[in-house]
Amino acid sequence: MRRRLCAKLLILDPQQRVLLCRGLAGDPAPAQDAFWTPPGGGLDEGESFEQAARRALQKNTGIVCQHMGAPVAEHTYSLPLADGDRLLVDERYFLIRAEGDTIAERVMSAEEFRWWDSQSLNSTTELIVPENLGLTLAGLIAN
After folding, report:
1. What pTM did the predictor assign?
2. CA neighbor of 5 nearest in space, from 63, 50, 37
3. According to CATH, what is the number of the domain 2-142?
């Protein structure tokens, strides 16, 4: 089983919606159909989760952030891959409050992107990773 460490970005707009991407480019490729997930990136050699989060934020949105703060959530799961292997994914989530929703136009690594509110996340039939993101988002908004 392969392992991937990943920093994810919970980017909230002023309407408390989170930016999710579908069809993220990357290697290795998952075996299942595309799923919706927050933007982010894998850790480079010697990089911390916070450093990877800052790099992914700038690359995916153009936003430069000197200090991300501590992760607000963690998620570990096993993902089946197209080659029959499995990938153990260990993710840390960082909260970013955006001043608007126009940053979505700069997400370059995604096939598709969309702003989601908590209610839509909890009621959709589409695959969302992590599966409890709607509850996580609602908790973050309440605080």
Report:
1. 0.84
2. 50
3. 3.90.79.10
CB 88 within 8 A of CB 1: yes
> By CB neighbour count within 10 A (0-12 exposed, 13-18 middle, 19+ buried), where does 123 fall?
exposed
Domain parsing of the chain, residue ranges: 2-142
What whole-number distance in Å separates Cα of residue 122 and Cα of residue 105?
25
* Per-residue tokens: 22: 């579908």
- Given a contact cutoff of 8 angstroms between Cβ atoms, the answer to whether 31 and 81 are in contact is yes
CB 84 within 8 A of CB 93: no
**What's the full length of the chain, in residues?**
143
Q: CA–CA distance from 76 to each of 7, 22, 34, 35, 106 (Å)?
A: 12, 19, 18, 16, 28
Q: In this predicted model, what pLDDT tens digit does every residue of 53-99 receive, in sequence order?
A: 999 988 888 777 877 889 999 999 888 888 888 989 999 999 998 87
- The tens digit of pLDDT for each residue in 95-120 reads 998 877 666 455 555 667 888 998 89
